[in-house]
Specification:
Elements (H helix, E strand, L loop, with lengths): L3 E2 L5 H17 L13 H9 L3 E6 L2 E9 L17 E9 L8 H15 L4 E7 L3 H9 L3 E6 L9 E7 L9 E2 L3 E4 L9 H4 L10 E7 L15 H8 L1 H4 L9 E8 L5 E3 L3 H7 L8 E7 L5 E7 L5 H9 L8 E6 L3 E5 L5 E3 L3 E8 L5 E4 L15 H7 L9 E2 L5 E7 L3 E7 L4 E2 L7 E5 L4 E5 L2 E5 L4 E4 L6 E4 L4 E6 L1
Parallel strand pairs: 4-5
Antiparallel strand pairs: 1-2, 2-3, 3-4, 5-7, 6-7, 8-27, 9-10, 10-11, 11-18, 12-19, 13-16, 13-18, 14-15, 14-17, 16-20, 21-22, 22-29, 23-28, 24-27, 24-29, 25-26, 25-28
């Protein structure tokens, strides 16, 4: 048995099949279909006339039918699909009630995929009501993937799950909008509210210091639009998503940080020290892009004052506030970039909002916390021995400032990551993706476009660019940051 194009002579039998299936769905309490509203005779007649209706016959009668098309419905535009730039579609899959449960639906979908492959499609897309559990089970059994939620006109508030599936090995993965995890409350007592008020983040705490935009940190993983955690996506897509890092620890972490108050003075270990003393974890080298400061400018602690020895630093640290005079302070403004290698002492000043790209590590050695006392009357824990072990007083370089010019400018090209700043004039081509990339809109709304699709990013939103992503351009009256591993 295989699908064949329906003919005009079969229309009456087709109409009877669809009316029967719709009535049976209604009897079961499922109102995705209601004969005469959807599907209609006019709709099915058009499927047949365009050559898009296919039927499956058993013992001379139609036991299944489906519409197969290479033309997307307007409602599919702007949805968050996962793969493909030459999509095909199927709708109105109907199986005669007398043969349901016999595997007919799977046979039909096998043939649908073959038809679309022969037509040059690299993926297949469809949708079904969130209440239609049987259809959802069938699609997932056939390897389809949930993508997004949509609504059809004239169906009220009924929700529909969309699904897609790659049809070819070389089918590209599409950019994935990421839902961040957050650190707030007592974990970031220095945090503010700008992640919510400026960027519209769905923070849970009134005070939130960190939005982990792309993260594999256990317990703080970012998610795709359907709620799947980043480690799950990596296991599912492997090299197509993250290149050579499919079988390695995920190397990078991207944050947005809102510092209402000054952070503690910190230092991070390198890979060698972290591996030896922190159960094989990665070290932490990072970089900051300053997004906002107080009106009179912001201030960072960036390294130790020139000429300071480790012995002097140790002695001052043991005395507490005596260390403050040894800290190197720098003024910053929006657009400044600060590279912080492992071993560089640093702290974010009050009122600063920034973008942080770093190694995927949660290791922080607290050097000094300004002698502050928490609500419990106690000072925060310090890690002086480890901090002094890893501090390198020489690890400091001049700040960079991003010039407001059109085009793509590589700001950093370091051991662990690159950072490009992109300001489109019209449609600015993105650099080729190296293993994967993080694209974050940092001005007005931006639109990321590729053949057959697009994705809008509001200010502060981030998407993950897969290793197999198609060629992309960025448009909009704003700017964006693009980070990739080296």
């Amino acid at each position: 048995m295989e699908l064949e194009r329906a003919t005009a002579a079969e229309l009456e039998e087709l109409l009877s099949l669809y009316e029967l299936v719709a009535d049976e769905m209604n009897e079961k309490g499922l109102y995705q279909w209601k004969w005469g509203r959807y599907p209609t005779e006019e709709l099915l007649r058009g499927d047949v006339e365009r050559g898009e209706m296919y039927v499956l016959r058993t013992d001379g009668r139609i036991t299944a039918a489906v519409a197969v098309s290479m033309t997307p419905d307007p409602e599919y535009a702007g949805l968050k699909w996962t793969s493909g730039i030459r999509p095909g579609f199927f709708h109105r899959l109907a199986v005669h009630p007398s043969t349901q449960g016999a595997g007919i639906g799977g046979l039909v979908l096998d043939d649908v995929q073959q038809i679309l492959r022969r037509s040059g499609c690299d993926c297949v897309r469809c949708d079904t009501s969130t209440e239609n559990r049987a259809a959802q089970r069938l699609y997932e059994k056939m390897g389809f993937r949930r993508c997004d939620i949509m609504y059809w006109e004239d169906t009220g508030d009924m929700k529909y799950n969309t699904f897609d599936k790659s049809l070819m090995r070389e089918t590209p993965l599409l950019p994935i909008p990421m839902t961040p995890a957050f650190r707030g409350g007592l974990l970031t007592p220095w945090g503010g509210d700008r992640l919510r008020t400026r960027f519209g983040k769905a923070t849970e705490d009134e005070v939130t210091g960190e939005s982990l935009e792309v993260s594999c940190i256990p317990g703080l993983e970012s998610r795709d639009p359907m709620g799947r955690k980043l480690p799950e996506l990596i296991r599912e897509f492997g090299e197509k998503l993250v290149g050579k890092y499919a079988d390695q620890p995920f190397p990078l972490l991207l944050k947005l940080i809102d510092a209402r108050d000054t952070l503690s003075v910190q230092v991070h270990p390198n890979d060698e020290y972290a591996s030896a003393h922190e159960q094989g974890k990665l070290g932490k080298t990072e970089a900051w892009l300053i997004l906002d400061t107080p009106k009179d400018g912001g201030e960072l602690v960036y390294g130790i004052r020139e000429g300071t020895t480790l012995t002097a630093l140790r002695e001052a640290s043991e005395q507490g506030s005596a260390v403050e005079k040894l800290l190197n302070r720098v003024k910053v403004r929006p657009g400044d970039v600060c590279y912080i290698p492992a071993g560089c002492v640093h702290a974010i000043g009050a009122g600063i909002l920034l973008y942080e790209i770093q190694q995927s590590s949660d290791l922080t050695y607290r050097f000094y916390d300004w002698d502050r006392v928490g609500k419990d009357g106690k000072k925060r824990e310090l890690h002086l021995k480890k901090a002094l072990d890893v501090t390198d007083p020489r690890r400091i370089r001049a700040l960079k400032h991003v010039q407001e010019s059109f085009g793509t400018k590589r700001v950093l090209n370091e051991e662990y990551f690159t950072l490009d700043m992109i300001r489109p004039d019209r449609a600015e081509p993105l650099p080729p993706v190296q293993h994967f990339g993080f694209l974050t809109a940092l001005g007005n709304e931006m639109t990321l476009t590729w053949k057959g699709g697009s994705l809008r990013l509001k200010e502060g939103e981030t998407c993950l660019l897969p290793a197999s992503a198609p060629g992309m351009t960025l448009e909009g009256d704003g700017w964006a940051a693009l980070s990739m591993p080296t």
